[in-house]
Amino acid sequence: MVINGEWDQRSLTISIKANCLTISLSVSGGAEVYSFDGEGRLWTALLDGVSYRRGLDGKLVAKWQTPGGGRDRCWLPPEKADELQAYIRKQVAGLLRALQDGQVRLDQPLPQQGLDDMRRAVAFDQQRIEADVARYHQVYKPVGILPPDQYMAVVLQATEGCAFNTCTFCDFYKSRPFRIKKPDEFSEHLLAVREFLGRGLSLRRTIFLGDANALVTPMNRLVPMFEAVHRVYDVQGLGGIYAFLDGFSGEKKSARDYHMLSEMGLERVYVGLESGNQELLNFLKKPGKAADAVKAVRAMKAGGVAVGVIVLLGAGGHTYSRAHVRYTIADINAMVLDLNDIVYFSELVETEGKAYVRDAYQASLRPLTEAERIAQAEAIEEGLQFSRRGGVPHISRYDIREFVY
Ligand code: SF4
Question: What's the 71 CA to ligand 1 centre distance in angstroms?
Answer without folding.
Answer: 27
